[in-house]
Amino acid sequence: MKLNTVIKGDALKELKKLPDAIAQTVIADPPYFNVLEDEAWDTQWKTPEDYLTWCENWVAECLRVLKDDGLGFIFGQLGKREHTFIHLMSRLCQQHQFHDLIIWDRAVGYNERRDSFTPQYEMILVLRKSESVKFNKGAVRIPYDADTITAYLRDPRYKNKEARKAHLDQGKFATNILRVPSLKGLTKEKCGHPSQKPLALIHKLIACASDEGDLVVDPFLGSGTTAIAAESQGRQWIGIELSADYAKLARKRLKTQRASA
């Protein structure tokens, strides 16, 4: 088993080749099913049931390769016509242990709707294998601005101002609503994948659910964001990508990342 490598292949087939319980974290951003209607990889299933069955199979493999104290993050989306994910969540939570449901607040909406609210969020279903999981909420903090820190320090209830200041400087703990701007237009980070996730978002997931040296597995690597985020934080990683073009793109981004490190 070679680490820190992009595997060009089918997610389900390649996952089956991996040993049991090797990954501390799994981050999966699969096709959402008929959301990106111009992409063949998102419209390849004839029925929602076909898609749901496929998802059940690859998720089962992801949980198999996950360590007992690991966490699996699965991206999805809800909207007027993007409702399949709600059925998938229901099924997966009956088959595996539910841990959390994270809302990714994209900060801006997309695909304006005539007769419903503009979607502004995506969802991340978090699954586990046991009650005891590795989770470091201190690794994902939201900084207070200077004015807020100054205001809090005026609170007379806190006698040890230095200790209070040190606490405030660390920032507040994140909630399960993560506000990270999506990659739009001419954003420098955007590299051509239509469903590319921001590095800042994936960085948070990896930081809270793994330590340096741990293995992160991504069965739908796409443009390589998970691999870049993992490597930049000292984690090992394995990425699987079916598309030869996207696998090439991921390798190119990784090469650039390593050259600038």
Structure characterization notes:
With 261 residues, the chain is an alpha/beta fold. It has two domains: 5-134 and 175-260, Vaccinia Virus protein VP39 (Rossmann fold, 3-Layer(aba) Sandwich), CATH 3.40.50; 142-174, no CATH class. It has helices at residues 11-15, 48-65, 84-95, 146-153, 161-170, 199-209, 225-232, 244-260; strands at residues 5-8, 23-28, 66-76, 97-105, 121-128, 141-142, 172-173, 177-179, 215-218, 236-241. An eight-stranded mixed β-sheet has the order 1-10-9-2-3-5-4-8. The chain has a two-stranded antiparallel ribbon with strand order 6-7. The longest helix has 18 residues, at 48-65.
Blueprint of the fold:
Elements: E1 5-8, H1 11-15, E2 23-28, H2 48-65, E3 66-76, H3 84-95, E4 97-105, E5 121-128, E6 141-142, H4 146-153, H5 161-170, E7 172-173, E8 177-179, H6 199-209, E9 215-218, H7 225-232, E10 236-241, H8 244-260
Parallel strand pairs: 1-10, 2-3, 2-9, 4-8, 9-10
Antiparallel strand pairs: 3-5, 4-5, 6-7
Helix pairs in contact: 2-3, 6-7, 7-8
GO molecular function: DNA binding; N-methyltransferase activity; site-specific DNA-methyltransferase (adenine-specific) activity
InterPro entries: DNA_methylase_N4/N6, RM_Methyltransferase, SAM-dependent_MTases_sf
Keywords: Methyltransferase, Transferase
